[in-house]
Amino acid sequence: MKKILFIEDEEALQRAMGDALEKAGYKLIKALDGEIGVSAALKEQPDLILLDLILPKKNGFEVLVELKKDPATKNIPVIVLTNLEGSSDVERALSLGAMTYLVKANYNLSDVLGKIELILNHHEK
Amino acid sequence: MGLWQCPQFLFLIMGAVIILAILTTYAVAIKYQDPEIAALVVLVLAAALFLVGYLIVRSFEKVALASKSKSEFISIMSHQLRSPLSAIKWQLNMLLQGQSPANASQEYLETIMQQNERMIRSVNDLLEVNRIEDNDLILRPREFSLKELTSKIINEYKNYASAYNVRVAFKDGEELMKIFADEERLGRVIEHLLDNAIRYSTNGGNILINIEKQNDGKILWKITDEGRGIPSAEQRRVFEKYFRASDVTRFQTEGSGVGLFIAKSIIKQSGGEMGFSSQESKGSTFWFILPVKI
Question: Does domain A3-124 have CATH number 3.90.1150.10?
């Protein structure tokens, strides 16, 4: 079963995403702040990481930097999933190594799941 | 913005000063043969030009800053509204597709309700800012107990506080401390202050709320946290509308930047005063003083 790490402090989003991923046959690992997110990525070695930007303890950009610096986590694809939409935020996230940048409010869960599937399939090859 | 901060007006003044400078230099040069006097006049006029030029640059900076905080505010506010909106959207996705586990529907609906409440609050805050700016903040004072109101709000924030690993203690005076003010709005003030104290306690800790009667009969309400505090360079701007602390904090906490602006305006309108003291990475104390009767 593929493991997906969701670094997001909003419980409601965690639950909805968790239920949706479970239905689609994935396993969700929850991280409610940036610090837990980084250590969970290292320990659990997920197949993909969904990352919010505004996070307690360590913000999403800091998390991204740490993930990409560590050889043990740098190849895990990261989808930034946020409600920030400043062009500088998007650019910064992509230049730090995020695979794609999705605005939560603009995507249905099924769309996000579609993206996850796409990236996972692509990444395997 | 005053006339002396308006770039267009300053340019007009600058033009006038330049014309005046040329004419005066001409007149002086004709009248006096002394090169020293002409040089002195030119020097004085050049200084005047420098001053106007400086004022113009300053006023442009002000305009730029205002529009920057405005666009920052719009991006923060849209984020504030989008967070609950996306939570509602995803939960509705699950409910509509009938994909939620058996007993989850009720929980989803309850969370949707909470998120909805959050959005209403954000919009109400915006409207309140508008009322304050239009000098249209009408208070509806009546007698109530500040102690009971505070306890009620602390109770409402219990789960939120424990999610942040924060303990909230409340030390009230012995009396009930009845005051005469707009209870609903004062409730918003306390909510904003408590919410900030919790949100900026990023490493947990204690929050202490204190109510006491001062010697002059006024009531002092005080909240002290052990949070990250406010850098001294930013303390000056804390009560400014739309102001939010710098980058690091901005990406670690949510907030619209209008809470303290609203809180201070309400307290001022109620005949009281509000202030704070803060030390970076040690914590902050915010307080307000209210008269018992307005």
Answer: no
